[in-house]
Amino acid sequence: MTVESVAGLRLTRVVKATPQQAWDAWTQPEQMKAWSCPAPGGLQEASVDLRVGGAFTMHMSVDGQEHNAFGTYREVDEPRRLVYTWDWREEEQAMGETLVTVEFHPVDGGTEVVVVHTGFPVDEAREGHEEGWVACLTHFEAHLS
């Protein structure tokens, strides 16, 4: 049996920061708390082992519900490109391993951040993550301004 995943998503945002500053905000647990949950202040805990094969976990609490994301770093090219797997520990949210690629491109006035998330099993998972990423990127931009 072959399982086809639905189309992924691609989002871009220009932030007023250098690629290194954007990279640090994306990968340092204390900075991640400021932006990497759709609900402001929702990221309670993050752990990062930033190396190929290293793992990350993120514990979020939103409206009384617990959400735990986890994954493994596949590519770490500081401060240009980061590739990691992504899934949820909670059975009702788990979707199987998906892949997130984040690129940081220097542009006039800052850094273009490109997020590509692929491997969703169903449209609903992609749509929910798109909504989440849009909110997170808005927080990310505010954090760096």
Describe this structure in words.
This protein has 145 residues and is of the alpha+beta class. It has one domain: START domain (Alpha-D-Glucose-1,6-Bisphosphate, Chain A, domain 4, 2-Layer Sandwich). It has 3 helices and 7 strands, in the order βααββββββα. The mean pLDDT is 93.
Helical fraction equals 10-25%
Q: Which word captures the global form?
A: globular
Task: Please state the CA-atom Rg, rounded to the nearest Å.
Answer: 15 Å
CATH architecture group name: 2-Layer Sandwich
The computed structural class is alpha+beta
Annotation field: number of helices:
3
Largest sheet properties = 7 strands, antiparallel
Order of helices and strands: EHHEEEEEEH
Poorly predicted runs: none
Question: What is the fold-level CATH name, i.e. the topology?
Answer: Alpha-D-Glucose-1,6-Bisphosphate, Chain A, domain 4
CATH homologous superfamily assignment: START domain
How many distinct domains? 1
Q: How large is the share of residues in beta strands?
A: 35-45%
The CATH class is Alpha Beta
List the helices and strands and how they pair.
Layout: E1 9-15, H1 19-27, H2 29-32, E2 43-48, E3 55-62, E4 65-77, E5 81-88, E6 98-107, E7 110-118, H3 123-144
Antiparallel strand pairs: 1-7, 2-3, 3-4, 4-5, 5-6, 6-7
What would you say about this model in short?
By secondary structure, the protein is of the alpha+beta class. The chain has helices at 19-27, 29-32, 123-144, and strands at residues 9-15, 43-48, 55-62, 65-77, 81-88, 98-107, 110-118. It has one domain (9-144): START domain (Alpha-D-Glucose-1,6-Bisphosphate, Chain A, domain 4).
